[in-house]
Amino acid sequence: MNAKAISGVVVLVLGALLIGASIFTVNERQQAIVVQFGDPQRTVIEPGLHFKTPFVEQVIYLDKRILSLDVRPQEVLASDQRRLVVDSFARFRIADPLKTYQAARTETNASDLLEKIMQSSIRQMLANERMTAIVSGSRSELMKRISELTNERAASLGLEVLEVRLKRVDLPAANSQSIFQRMETERQQEAAEKRAEGQEQALAIRAIADRKVAETLAEARREAAIVRGEADAEATRIFAEAYGQDPEFFEFYRTLAAYRTTLGKADTRLVLSPDSEFFHLFLDPNGNSKRRK
Protein backbone atom coordinates (compact mmCIF):
# COMPACT_ATOMS: atom_id res chain seq x y z
CA MET A 1 0.00 0.00 0.00
CA ASN A 2 1.45 3.31 -1.04
CA ALA A 3 1.64 6.45 1.04
CA LYS A 4 -1.29 8.03 -0.73
CA ALA A 5 -3.61 5.18 0.20
CA ILE A 6 -2.39 5.21 3.79
CA SER A 7 -3.02 8.95 3.98
CA GLY A 8 -6.54 8.40 2.64
CA VAL A 9 -7.29 5.79 5.30
CA VAL A 10 -5.92 8.05 8.03
CA VAL A 11 -8.09 10.91 6.81
CA LEU A 12 -11.17 8.67 6.78
CA VAL A 13 -10.46 7.41 10.31
CA LEU A 14 -9.87 10.92 11.60
CA GLY A 15 -13.01 12.10 9.82
CA ALA A 16 -15.03 9.29 11.42
CA LEU A 17 -13.60 10.09 14.84
CA LEU A 18 -14.34 13.75 14.32
CA ILE A 19 -17.91 13.07 13.25
CA GLY A 20 -18.40 10.64 16.15
CA ALA A 21 -17.08 13.22 18.59
CA SER A 22 -19.40 15.86 17.11
CA ILE A 23 -22.64 13.87 17.36
CA PHE A 24 -24.64 12.92 20.44
CA THR A 25 -28.17 11.60 20.91
CA VAL A 26 -30.83 12.40 23.50
CA ASN A 27 -33.64 9.89 23.97
CA GLU A 28 -37.17 10.66 25.17
CA ARG A 29 -36.26 9.86 28.80
CA GLN A 30 -33.35 12.30 28.91
CA GLN A 31 -32.39 15.95 28.76
CA ALA A 32 -28.84 17.20 28.32
CA ILE A 33 -26.54 20.09 29.22
CA VAL A 34 -23.71 20.87 26.76
CA VAL A 35 -20.74 22.25 28.70
CA GLN A 36 -17.37 23.58 27.62
CA PHE A 37 -14.65 23.09 30.21
CA GLY A 38 -17.36 22.88 32.88
CA ASP A 39 -19.16 26.00 31.70
CA PRO A 40 -22.71 25.28 30.46
CA GLN A 41 -23.33 26.37 26.89
CA ARG A 42 -26.85 25.25 26.10
CA THR A 43 -29.67 22.94 27.21
CA VAL A 44 -31.00 20.16 24.98
CA ILE A 45 -34.50 18.96 25.84
CA GLU A 46 -35.83 17.63 22.53
CA PRO A 47 -34.95 13.98 21.84
CA GLY A 48 -32.98 13.12 18.67
CA LEU A 49 -29.58 13.63 17.07
CA HIS A 50 -27.59 16.73 18.05
CA PHE A 51 -24.16 18.19 17.39
CA LYS A 52 -21.43 19.66 19.57
CA THR A 53 -17.89 20.90 19.14
CA PRO A 54 -15.72 17.79 19.21
CA PHE A 55 -13.17 17.33 22.00
CA VAL A 56 -14.09 20.74 23.44
CA GLU A 57 -17.70 20.37 24.56
CA GLN A 58 -19.03 17.60 26.75
CA VAL A 59 -22.60 16.42 27.34
CA ILE A 60 -24.14 15.96 30.82
CA TYR A 61 -27.30 13.84 30.78
CA LEU A 62 -30.11 14.33 33.31
CA ASP A 63 -33.25 12.25 33.71
CA LYS A 64 -36.47 13.68 32.32
CA ARG A 65 -38.82 11.25 34.06
CA ILE A 66 -40.60 11.58 37.41
CA LEU A 67 -38.18 10.38 40.10
CA SER A 68 -38.68 9.03 43.63
CA LEU A 69 -36.72 9.95 46.72
CA ASP A 70 -36.97 7.78 49.83
CA VAL A 71 -35.94 9.98 52.74
CA ARG A 72 -34.20 8.35 55.68
CA PRO A 73 -36.31 8.23 58.90
CA GLN A 74 -35.74 11.22 61.13
CA GLU A 75 -36.77 12.15 64.66
CA VAL A 76 -38.81 15.33 65.03
CA LEU A 77 -40.32 17.22 67.95
CA ALA A 78 -44.05 18.09 67.85
CA SER A 79 -45.51 21.24 69.40
CA ASP A 80 -46.55 19.31 72.53
CA GLN A 81 -42.92 18.20 73.02
CA ARG A 82 -43.63 14.65 71.86
CA ARG A 83 -40.83 13.03 69.88
CA LEU A 84 -41.83 11.24 66.70
CA VAL A 85 -39.97 9.15 64.11
CA VAL A 86 -41.08 10.18 60.61
CA ASP A 87 -40.44 8.10 57.48
CA SER A 88 -41.25 9.93 54.23
CA PHE A 89 -40.72 9.92 50.47
CA ALA A 90 -41.14 12.37 47.58
CA ARG A 91 -41.89 12.31 43.87
CA PHE A 92 -40.14 14.98 41.83
CA ARG A 93 -38.72 15.82 38.42
CA ILE A 94 -35.93 18.00 37.02
CA ALA A 95 -37.85 20.98 35.68
CA ASP A 96 -34.87 23.21 34.88
CA PRO A 97 -31.80 21.11 33.99
CA LEU A 98 -29.54 24.18 33.77
CA LYS A 99 -30.35 25.23 37.35
CA THR A 100 -29.91 21.65 38.53
CA TYR A 101 -26.49 21.43 36.91
CA GLN A 102 -25.40 24.81 38.27
CA ALA A 103 -26.60 23.99 41.82
CA ALA A 104 -25.74 20.30 42.11
CA ARG A 105 -23.85 19.18 38.95
CA THR A 106 -25.28 15.63 39.16
CA GLU A 107 -28.62 13.92 39.86
CA THR A 108 -27.14 12.23 42.94
CA ASN A 109 -26.10 15.56 44.43
CA ALA A 110 -29.50 17.04 43.57
CA SER A 111 -31.25 14.15 45.37
CA ASP A 112 -29.05 14.64 48.44
CA LEU A 113 -29.84 18.37 48.53
CA LEU A 114 -33.56 17.67 48.08
CA GLU A 115 -33.46 15.21 50.97
CA LYS A 116 -32.01 17.89 53.25
CA ILE A 117 -34.70 20.35 52.11
CA MET A 118 -37.44 17.78 52.82
CA GLN A 119 -36.10 17.00 56.29
CA SER A 120 -35.98 20.72 57.10
CA SER A 121 -39.53 21.28 55.81
CA ILE A 122 -40.89 18.31 57.74
CA ARG A 123 -39.26 19.47 60.99
CA GLN A 124 -40.59 23.00 60.50
CA MET A 125 -44.16 21.91 59.76
CA LEU A 126 -44.44 19.24 62.45
CA ALA A 127 -43.01 21.59 65.08
CA ASN A 128 -46.26 23.58 64.83
CA GLU A 129 -48.59 20.56 65.19
CA ARG A 130 -49.65 18.37 68.10
CA MET A 131 -48.94 14.65 68.02
CA THR A 132 -52.63 13.69 67.62
CA ALA A 133 -52.98 15.89 64.53
CA ILE A 134 -49.81 14.45 63.01
CA VAL A 135 -50.72 10.83 63.66
CA SER A 136 -54.34 10.91 62.55
CA GLY A 137 -56.26 14.16 62.54
CA SER A 138 -55.08 16.31 59.60
CA ARG A 139 -52.27 14.32 58.01
CA SER A 140 -53.46 14.84 54.43
CA GLU A 141 -53.57 18.62 54.85
CA LEU A 142 -50.21 18.50 56.60
CA MET A 143 -48.60 16.56 53.72
CA LYS A 144 -50.01 19.08 51.26
CA ARG A 145 -48.41 21.97 53.14
CA ILE A 146 -45.09 20.11 53.41
CA SER A 147 -45.20 19.47 49.63
CA GLU A 148 -45.81 23.14 48.90
CA LEU A 149 -42.99 24.30 51.20
CA THR A 150 -40.54 21.71 49.82
CA ASN A 151 -41.42 22.60 46.23
CA GLU A 152 -40.89 26.29 46.96
CA ARG A 153 -37.43 25.62 48.40
CA ALA A 154 -36.44 23.09 45.74
CA ALA A 155 -37.12 25.57 42.92
CA SER A 156 -33.62 26.97 43.45
CA LEU A 157 -32.28 23.54 42.46
CA GLY A 158 -34.35 23.44 39.27
CA LEU A 159 -36.53 20.69 40.78
CA GLU A 160 -40.30 20.43 40.88
CA VAL A 161 -41.65 18.47 43.84
CA LEU A 162 -44.93 16.84 42.87
CA GLU A 163 -45.76 15.08 46.13
CA VAL A 164 -44.45 14.47 49.64
CA ARG A 165 -45.84 11.54 51.60
CA LEU A 166 -45.44 10.61 55.26
CA LYS A 167 -45.21 6.82 55.09
CA ARG A 168 -44.92 6.19 58.81
CA VAL A 169 -45.17 8.33 61.94
CA ASP A 170 -44.28 6.43 65.12
CA LEU A 171 -43.10 7.07 68.62
CA PRO A 172 -39.44 6.32 69.35
CA ALA A 173 -38.95 2.78 70.63
CA ALA A 174 -37.64 4.05 73.97
CA ASN A 175 -40.86 5.99 74.63
CA SER A 176 -43.43 3.57 73.25
CA GLN A 177 -43.68 1.35 76.34
CA SER A 178 -43.91 4.20 78.84
CA ILE A 179 -46.49 6.01 76.74
CA PHE A 180 -48.47 2.81 76.35
CA GLN A 181 -48.45 2.27 80.11
CA ARG A 182 -49.56 5.86 80.72
CA MET A 183 -52.37 5.51 78.20
CA GLU A 184 -53.41 2.22 79.79
CA THR A 185 -53.47 3.87 83.24
CA GLU A 186 -55.57 6.75 81.87
CA ARG A 187 -58.04 4.32 80.31
CA GLN A 188 -58.27 2.37 83.58
CA GLN A 189 -58.95 5.59 85.50
CA GLU A 190 -61.58 6.58 82.99
CA ALA A 191 -63.18 3.13 83.25
CA ALA A 192 -63.20 3.38 87.06
CA GLU A 193 -64.88 6.80 86.87
CA LYS A 194 -67.50 5.51 84.44
CA ARG A 195 -68.07 2.46 86.66
CA ALA A 196 -68.53 4.69 89.75
CA GLU A 197 -70.94 6.93 87.83
CA GLY A 198 -72.88 3.86 86.75
CA GLN A 199 -73.11 2.56 90.33
CA GLU A 200 -74.24 5.98 91.54
CA GLN A 201 -76.93 6.11 88.87
CA ALA A 202 -77.97 2.54 89.71
CA LEU A 203 -78.37 3.47 93.41
CA ALA A 204 -80.40 6.53 92.48
CA ILE A 205 -82.66 4.51 90.17
CA ARG A 206 -83.04 1.77 92.80
CA ALA A 207 -83.94 4.35 95.45
CA ILE A 208 -86.57 5.89 93.17
CA ALA A 209 -87.98 2.43 92.41
CA ASP A 210 -88.07 1.50 96.11
CA ARG A 211 -89.85 4.77 96.94
CA LYS A 212 -92.41 4.15 94.20
CA VAL A 213 -92.95 0.60 95.47
CA ALA A 214 -93.43 1.86 99.03
CA GLU A 215 -95.82 4.57 97.83
CA THR A 216 -97.76 2.06 95.72
CA LEU A 217 -98.03 -0.41 98.63
CA ALA A 218 -99.08 2.35 101.04
CA GLU A 219 -101.74 3.54 98.59
CA ALA A 220 -102.92 -0.03 98.09
CA ARG A 221 -103.14 -0.62 101.86
CA ARG A 222 -105.02 2.66 102.28
CA GLU A 223 -107.48 1.75 99.55
CA ALA A 224 -107.82 -1.78 101.02
CA ALA A 225 -108.52 -0.33 104.47
CA ILE A 226 -111.14 1.99 102.99
CA VAL A 227 -112.79 -0.89 101.12
CA ARG A 228 -112.60 -3.10 104.22
CA GLY A 229 -114.12 -0.36 106.39
CA GLU A 230 -116.89 0.22 103.87
CA ALA A 231 -117.53 -3.54 103.73
CA ASP A 232 -117.64 -3.79 107.54
CA ALA A 233 -119.99 -0.82 107.68
CA GLU A 234 -122.20 -2.41 105.03
CA ALA A 235 -122.17 -5.73 106.91
CA THR A 236 -123.06 -3.97 110.14
CA ARG A 237 -125.86 -2.16 108.40
CA ILE A 238 -127.21 -5.39 106.94
CA PHE A 239 -127.02 -7.12 110.32
CA ALA A 240 -128.75 -4.14 111.92
CA GLU A 241 -131.53 -4.25 109.36
CA ALA A 242 -131.88 -8.00 109.82
CA TYR A 243 -131.93 -7.58 113.60
CA GLY A 244 -134.59 -4.90 113.31
CA GLN A 245 -136.83 -7.16 111.22
CA ASP A 246 -136.72 -10.15 113.67
CA PRO A 247 -134.81 -9.49 116.90
CA GLU A 248 -135.61 -12.92 118.39
CA PHE A 249 -134.27 -14.79 115.34
CA PHE A 250 -131.22 -12.60 115.23
CA GLU A 251 -130.47 -13.28 118.92
CA PHE A 252 -131.05 -16.98 118.31
CA TYR A 253 -128.57 -16.86 115.41
CA ARG A 254 -125.99 -14.98 117.46
CA THR A 255 -126.35 -17.51 120.32
CA LEU A 256 -125.74 -20.45 117.95
CA ALA A 257 -122.67 -18.68 116.55
CA ALA A 258 -121.36 -18.24 120.09
CA TYR A 259 -121.95 -21.96 120.82
CA ARG A 260 -120.08 -22.91 117.60
CA THR A 261 -117.15 -20.64 118.47
CA THR A 262 -116.93 -21.70 122.11
CA LEU A 263 -117.84 -25.41 122.00
CA GLY A 264 -116.43 -26.26 118.57
CA LYS A 265 -113.02 -27.10 119.97
CA ALA A 266 -112.28 -30.49 121.58
CA ASP A 267 -110.22 -29.07 124.45
CA THR A 268 -112.77 -26.44 125.55
CA ARG A 269 -113.51 -26.33 129.28
CA LEU A 270 -116.33 -24.16 130.70
CA VAL A 271 -117.17 -23.84 134.35
CA LEU A 272 -120.72 -22.42 134.51
CA SER A 273 -123.81 -22.99 136.62
CA PRO A 274 -126.49 -25.10 134.96
CA ASP A 275 -128.95 -22.25 134.95
CA SER A 276 -126.49 -19.85 133.32
CA GLU A 277 -127.82 -17.51 130.67
CA PHE A 278 -125.32 -19.08 128.24
CA PHE A 279 -127.29 -22.38 128.23
CA HIS A 280 -130.80 -21.01 128.03
CA LEU A 281 -131.39 -22.63 124.63
CA PHE A 282 -130.55 -26.03 126.12
CA LEU A 283 -132.98 -25.46 128.96
CA ASP A 284 -135.70 -24.05 126.72
CA PRO A 285 -135.31 -24.63 122.96
CA ASN A 286 -137.77 -21.83 122.31
CA GLY A 287 -135.65 -19.51 124.35
CA ASN A 288 -138.54 -18.12 126.40
CA SER A 289 -139.78 -19.95 129.51
CA LYS A 290 -136.53 -20.80 131.26
CA ARG A 291 -134.57 -17.58 130.66
CA ARG A 292 -133.84 -15.43 133.57
CA LYS A 293 -135.47 -12.12 133.57
Written overview of the protein:
- The chain starts with a helix and ends in a 10-residue tail after the last helix.
- It has 293 residues and is an alpha+beta fold.
- The longest helix is centred in the C-terminal third of the chain and has 73 residues.
- α3 packs across α5 and α6 crosses α7.
- The C terminus is likely disordered.
- It has 8 helices and 8 strands.
- It is rod-shaped and about 190 Å long.
- The protein has a 3-stranded antiparallel sheet with strand order 3-2-5, with helices on one face.
Keywords:
293 residues; 3-stranded antiparallel beta sheet; 8 helices; disordered C terminus
Short characterization:
The protein has helices spanning 3-22, 97-104, 107-126, 131-137, 139-154, 173-245, 247-263, 280-283, and strands at residues 23-26, 30-36, 39-44, 48-51, 57-63, 67-77, 83-94, 159-170. It has 293 residues and is α+β, with helices and mostly antiparallel strands.
